[in-house]
Design a protein that fits this description.
single chain, mainly alpha
Length: 120
């Protein structure tokens, strides 16, 4: 059985391989932890959801990556409206758990996005 960190790494590897072909994705992934730490997870997810214009597709992919992982961990649903409603109803500890889990997965995703982009 794989450890949780191995599962995070595998998920991040799959997402990086699929998404780094999209312009701006790597940069969005690299900036995600700072946005979360500065603004909070919910505000960051809302920012990615509302992004239009340049890098709109990259922002949507990062949003999908984060919510997909949190849904896989059974923390919140994978779709944005349901996830936000779940966060509104959650306690502070649950939101912190989701934040910690997101940051842990993003550590892998950042590394792999760079590695995959460099290999192309």
């Amino acid at each position: 059985m794989n450890t949780l960190d191995q599962r995070r790494a595998q998920y991040a590897w799959e997402r990086a391989n699929r998404n780094t072909v999209v312009e701006g994705y790597r940069e969005m992934v690299k900036g995600a932890p700072a946005l979360i730490m500065g603004n909070g997870l919910m505000a960051t997810l809302a920012y990615y959801h509302s992004r239009t214009g340049s890098n709109e597709r990259a922002a949507q992919l990062v949003l999908d990556d984060v919510l997909g992982w949190l849904a896989r961990r059974q923390i919140v649903p994978a779709d944005f409206p349901s996830a936000m409603n779940a966060f509104f109803k959650a306690g502070a500890q649950d939101v912190m758990r989701a934040t910690d889990e997101t940051l842990a997965m993003l550590r892998w995703l950042r590394q792999f996005a760079d590695a995959v982009k460099g290999a192309r």
